[in-house]
Amino acid sequence: MKLSKKQVFTEGFYQNIGMLFYAIAASDKVVQAEEIKTLNDLVQKKWVPIDDATDEFGTDEAYKIEMIFDWLEENSPEAEWAFNEFRQYKKDNERLFTSQIKQLIWETADAIAASFAGKNKSELIMLSKLKILLSS
């Protein structure tokens, strides 16, 4: 999937995407090393190429996904809280969520959930909530 580079996403966008991916990984109360590796691989391969936004240090803004994910993992908030933060952000910023971005979000979330011993019940529930949210 090739996304145009015209869209520039903000740090807040990527932070909220990171919250969502944390919610998926932490839905079963344990973030596995394989889930982190899958996230990092997909950020590099799929998220970094979608825009040219960089921070004041020249770092691609997409890496904020990994930064917020790592921070959340260290601080261990409830997965449900992180999901609700993303839900509210999406509601307030619908224009950013094109069909291409929704597809990329879904593919990343699905891959994270599948990366460690398949998808468990908690992850399936969180993924179904995400599917409903992305289709609205």
Outline the structure in words.
Helix 1 packs antiparallel against helix 4. The mean pLDDT is 93. The protein has one domain (11-135). 65% of the residues lie in helices and 0% in strands. It is mainly alpha-helical and 136 residues long. The protein is built from six helices and no strands. It has helices at residues 11-26, 33-47, 64-75, 79-92, 99-114, 121-135.
Quick synopsis:
This is Tellurite resistance protein TerB. With 136 residues, the chain is mostly helical. The protein has helices at 11-26, 33-47, 64-75, 79-92, 99-114, 121-135.
Number of domains as seen in the coordinates: 1
Give the N-to-C terminal Cα separation. Answer: 22 Å
Percent of residues in helices: 55-70%
Please identify the oligomeric state: single chain
Rg to the nearest angstrom?
Answer: 14 Å
> In this structure, how is the largest beta sheet organized?
none
Structural class based on helices, strands and sheet pairing: mainly alpha
State mean pLDDT (0 to 100 scale): 93
String of helices and strands = HHHHHH
The percentage of residues in β strands lies in under 5%
DSSP summary, beta strand count: 0
Low-confidence stretches: none
Shape: globular
Number of helices: 6
Protein name: Tellurite resistance protein TerB
Keywords:
single chain; 136 residues; mainly alpha; 6 helices; 65% helix; globular
